[in-house]
Amino acid sequence: MTRPPEDQPLTDPGSSHELAERKMRFLFALRSRGVTDSRVLTAMEMIDRGHFVRGIFADRAYEDMPLPIACGQTISQPSVVGLMTQALAVNPRDTVLEIGTGSGYQAAILSQLARRVYTVDRYRRLVREAGEVFRQLDLANITTIAADGSFGLPDQAPFDRIIVTAAAEDPPGPLLDQLKLGGIMVLPVGQSDTVQSLIKVTRTERGFDYEELRPVRFVPLVEGLGSE
Ligand code: SAH
C-alpha cells in the first residue's frame, strides 16, 4: 500500500474516512495475494492490525509487510498470516497451539476461528504485552504462555491444529507428537538466513503427510527462554 506523497496535504491519519479506506485496501491486497477463504477474510477484517503494531511503525499497520516489534522480533506480513491461517483450515471446535506469539496478531485472528488458542513465546515481555491487547479486545479464548515452544504444551495436548511462526530446520518432534490424528500443522522449515519453505503437515493413520506450500522468510525458532 502506498503512502501519500510528501507534497500532498496529509489527511488526518485518525480521520475515519482515511482509516476506512486504508482498511479496505488492506483487505483487497489480501485477496489479490491469494487469501480467498471468506472466514479467514472476515476474521482479518474483525481483528485490526493497528492494535498490534506500536510506536513509529504504527502508521504502517495496514501495509502488506512485516514490521519490527519489541525484542528484535517481527509481526508477520498480513498476506502470509492469511495464507497460513487458510492452510490451517481451522474448525470452530478446534483447539489450536501457536508457537511464536510475537505481537499476538496471528493468535487474535485464530481466536475468531477456533474454540481455544494457546500461544507460546520465549520472550515474557511479548507474552505480557500481547496478553494486554487480548484483554482490551476481550479475546477471552486465548491463553498466553512464556516458554520454549519447541517442546509444545504437553499438559494441554493433543491439538487439532498447530501453527509455528518461527523457522526450525525440521518440524520439532514434540510438536508432531502433540498433533491429533487428522490434525494439521503449518510451519516454516529451513535455515534462518535463507529462504525457507512453508509446509503443511497432516497426521494420518499411516504417519505424516507433508505438503510444500510456498517460500517464506521467518525469524528462527530459538532454544530456551529469552532475556526480556
Ligand atoms: N506470530 C507473530 C509473529 C511471530 S515472530 C505475530 O503474529 O506477530 C516469531 C516469534 O517466535 C518471536 O516472537 C520469537 O520470540 C518467537 N520464538 C522463537 N523461538 C521460539 C521458541 N523456541 N519458543 C517460543 N517462541 C519462540
In short:
The protein has 228 residues and is α/β, with parallel strands linked by helices. The chain has six helices and nine strands; from the N terminus they run H-H-E-E-H-E-H-E-H-E-E-H-E-E-E. It has a single domain (16-216), classed as 3-Layer(aba) Sandwich (Rossmann fold), CATH 3.40.50.150.
Question: What best-fitting shape do the alpha-carbon axes yield?
Answer: globular
Structural category: alpha/beta
Order of helices and strands: HHEEHEHEHEEHEEE
> Overall mean pLDDT score?
93
CATH topology: Rossmann fold
Largest sheet: 7 strands, mixed
- Please state roughly what percent of the residues sit in beta strands, choosing from under 5%, 5-15%, 15-25%, 25-35%, 35-45% or over 45%: 15-25%
Give the count of helical stretches.
6
- Name the helicity range: 25-40%
Low confidence ranges:
4-11
What is the total domain count?
Answer: 1
Bound molecules: S-adenosyl-L-homocysteine
Q: What's the CATH architecture name? A: 3-Layer(aba) Sandwich
In CATH's first tier, which class applies?
Alpha Beta
Radius of gyration: 17 Å
How do the strands of the widest beta sheet line up side by side? 5-4-3-6-7-8-9
Assign the CATH superfamily: Vaccinia Virus protein VP39
Distance between the termini: 33 Å
Number of strands: 9
